Amino acid sequence: MNKGITIAIDGFSSTGKSTIAKQLAKHLNYIYVDTGAMYRAVALYAINNNLIQEDLKKELLINDLDKIKLNFVYNDSLGFAEMYLNDINVEKEIRTIEVSKWVSKVAAISEVRKKLVSAQQEMGKNKGIVMDGRDIGTVVFPDAELKLFMTASADKRAKRRYKELIDRGDDVNYEEILENVQERDRIDSTREDSPLVKASDAVEFDNSDMGLKEQFERILSLVNDII
Ligand code: DC
């Protein structure tokens, strides 16, 4: 039986990685994994367990890694899997600005990355998967058949994120979001372990001015060329 291919989608925050990943997974009947949700869930654990006071208590978080259980549970009505932290659905809590503020620091810890990367490799071992993140084409699946690298201007990305948070009722201001997007870009691209870089064989998409439909059609045609 044809098990399908591995599609790795990397790029800066709020470049629409999850939107295209979900569209592709639905169309191809593949599994979709949002790896950012896993790093966000670890950051939420740190916040909820007082491992962040003025700064992140790295060593304490590393000691607690065995106590952190992460699962995805498919939600039929939403059409994608939701993130569970120690058996509790945290899909909404992991998207707050508070989690966004700390997650890049959590994701820079090598021990955290090791645990999450090995779980991600396990999820993708049978292929037929679309995974999005920062290191999927470079570290998690360096042999992925299709690698995409998404970009868009910081201003466009912050506006998208602002709209998402306002739509769900959060009290946020645009400047705060723009600062957070730029700060995360900086930390994600300059960290020592698995920094965000475009894989040499990744196809780059700047969607600052590209509509969702056009983007989906162009990417789907890349997929069809491979399949
Ligand atoms: O995609 P996102 O914004 O939900 O990701 C949250 C953070 O997690 C982001 O700042 C970088 C980090 N991340 C990572 O380091 N590696 C991944 N594969 C996915 C996310």
Report a brief summary of the structure.
With 227 residues, the chain is α/β, with parallel strands linked by helices.
Number of helices: 9
Distance between the termini: 13 Å
> Quick one: biggest sheet?
5 strands, parallel
Assign an overall shape. Answer: globular
| Largest beta sheet: strand ordering | 2-6-1-7-8
Task: Describe, in plain words, how this protein is organized in 3D.
The protein is of the alpha/beta class. It has one domain (6-226): P-loop containing nucleotide triphosphate hydrolases (Rossmann fold), CATH 3.40.50. It contains 9 helices and 8 strands. The chain has helices at residues 17-28, 35-48, 58-64, 97-107, 110-123, 136-140, 154-167, 174-190, 212-226; strands spanning 6-11, 31-34, 70-75, 80-85, 88-89, 129-133, 146-151, 203-206. Strand 3 (70-75) and strand 4 form a beta hairpin. Helix 2 packs across helix 4 (97-107). The model has no long low-confidence stretch (mean pLDDT 95). 2'-deoxycytidine-5'-monophosphate (DC) binds at residues 13, 35-36, 39-40, 103-104, 107, 133-135, 184, 188.
Any chance you could write out the topology, listing elements then pairs?
Elements: E1 6-11, H1 17-28, E2 31-34, H2 35-48, H3 58-64, E3 70-75, E4 80-85, E5 88-89, H4 97-107, H5 110-123, E6 129-133, H6 136-140, E7 146-151, H7 154-167, H8 174-190, E8 203-206, H9 212-226
The structure holds 2'-deoxycytidine-5'-monophosphate.
2'-deoxycytidine-5'-monophosphate binds at residues 13, 35-36, 39-40, 103-104, 107, 133-135, 184, 188.
